[in-house]
Structure prediction request, 301 residues.
Amino acid sequence: MIQAMVGAQEAAAVTARRPLRFACRLLGHPSAALGFVILCVFGVLALSANLVAPFDPNEAHLLDRLSPPTWLSHGGSGYLLGTDQLGRDIFSRIVYGTRVSLLIGLLSVSISMIVGLALGTCAGFYRGWFDALVSRFADLLMAFPYLIFAIGMMAVIGPGFWNLVLALSFKGWVEFFRLVRGETLAQQCREYVEAARAMGASSGRIIGRHILPNIIHTSIVLATLRMGYFIVLEASLSYLGLGVPPRIPAWGSMVADGNEVLFSAWWVSTFPGLAIAALVLAVNLLGEGVREILDPRLRIG
Prediction:
């Protein structure tokens, strides 16, 4: 039993001890490398928005309203992707909107993962009334479609950046909880957990030293895959006017702004929509690559 326990600890710590090897595998995976590069581009844009954006995202130039992109034959001068109904530069608003999408996606998935990991581990390890209570509450939340639930919450608490993060995270932890709870139940039957109990290890030590290191990789994979979904939900709520305040550039609200002029000024909605598609595609490509790397059953060679 002791040998099994030590061996499991060593196997679970491979990724933590060899980040360089994991990075090499990630960059060697074609789709994951492509997704990582695209995410890096968006990350650089978000961090250096003040330097990259040629205009203030909320600065209006009414004389230049609905100007076409500068690279078109009839394009306006100085506006790379054109302007909207108020003469605001589309490119500058997309660059600043990158911050909103990335921040909300990262914060929502991080909060959901932490809450789901904590509740799932405790519920799967201790069982009893706590497991029954949290599981029934999770089942109740699962009964509501995610978008409808988020719309209802935003209608109650009102638009806002942190309100949007709260609305997405309030139901987002359920999938992490169900996954982690199942993994914890499976890990409790392993020999190294029984050996730790026989040696007198406390419950906290068993969870922290023996169970969590062996289930954390599944939560990381789920987090990378769910981040793209959170970004789409944020764009959907912003499109409906239930996301961040109008003064903050958001891709979803930019798509909504171009609905009325879709045929006469197609660039107002098209370029923010392409930005959403590119970011979500990059996150999903990276998530699939991480899943194939961390799951030994999917490794080839």
User: Anything to note?
Assistant: Residues 10 and 17 are 10 Å apart (CA to CA). The two ends are 30 Å apart (CA to CA). Residues 2-298 form a domain with the MetI-like fold fold (CATH 1.10.3720.10). The longest helix spans residues 90-126.
